Amino acid sequence: MSLASRVVGFVKLMRPPNCLMMGFAVLVGAVVASGGLPLGKALELAYGFATGFTLLAASNALNDYHDREIDAINEPERPIPSGLVRPWEALAFSAALTALGLSLAFLTSLKCFLTALLATAIADLYVTYGKKTGLPGNAMVSSCVAIPFLYGSLIAAGRITGLVALFASMAFSANLGREINKGIVDVAGDASKGIRTVAVRWGPRAAAVLSAVFYMTAVGLSWLPLAYGMVSLAYVPPIALTDLGFLHASASILRDHGRENAKKVKNEVLLWMTTGMIGFIMGVLTV
């Protein structure tokens, strides 16, 4: 096995696109909290981006370690079951990334360090125990997706603003729908290991319905900032696109809740979550 393929294995273990989104969410939270570009906090924001990136990468590596037997069924091309990364290497990699992320958080501020510590605890609890609980575990993951927005607000404003909290709620709801949706993709492996996802316990149809409910909740929440005059009209185009994406995802998963379509929908939802974050930024930069 070549060195290049081994490096690729470690990169895949991190899932860089997801990590970049997590770091970007920290920046979005900071921009929304300050109502502009907080240039005076450039170093802290760099630390914040890196903290979000590395802590999610650490969680992903730890998750793949614990899921190696499930992935051998659901995703045999993943780095550990494919042999690109040894199990103990994934553990060591996760520990190193966690140490780096928490160190950067400590350099940012005490509030940020405690928040990062909380996010790490939730992520590790999910991987070691929460995943088997199904829906509560999905909520743990979604909390970790919402926390970076709050983290960015702490960097820029020293507190969590109301608008950031609302945007974080939207991210939580959309990601909860995505996690339930993801359970449809992983039914075979999850069932074999006693993981009680909605799809395993009540079937793919029930999971599709609940997933759509949370996508639509995010859509409903998305118009509150405009209704209360918290954002400018520049918020509308990207959020309208995002909402159309969530509407399409809901209709698609309800129409076809088979494994392949569920996998396609969960990947598309990441795109709509990204356009939503762009909407958050545009809405506050042009107020």
What descriptive keywords fit this protein?
287 residues, 81% helix, mainly alpha
Helices and strands in order:
Blueprint: H1 3-14, H2 16-34, H3 42-66, H4 68-74, H5 87-108, H6 110-128, H7 135-157, H8 162-185, H9 187-192, H10 198-202, H11 204-222, H12 224-227, H13 236-255, H14 259-285
Helix pairs in contact: 2-3, 2-7, 2-14, 3-5, 3-6, 3-7, 5-6, 6-7, 7-8, 8-11, 8-14, 11-13, 13-14
Provide an overview of this structure.
- With 287 residues, the protein is mainly alpha-helical.
- It contains 14 helices and no strands.
- The protein has helices at residues 3-14, 16-34, 42-66, 68-74, 87-108, 110-128, 135-157, 162-185, 187-192, 198-202, 204-222, 224-227, 236-255, 259-285.
- Helix 6 (110-128) runs antiparallel to helix 7 and helix 8 (162-185) runs antiparallel to helix 14 (259-285).
- The termini are far apart.
Concise overview:
By secondary structure, the chain is an all-alpha fold. The chain has 14 helices and no strands.
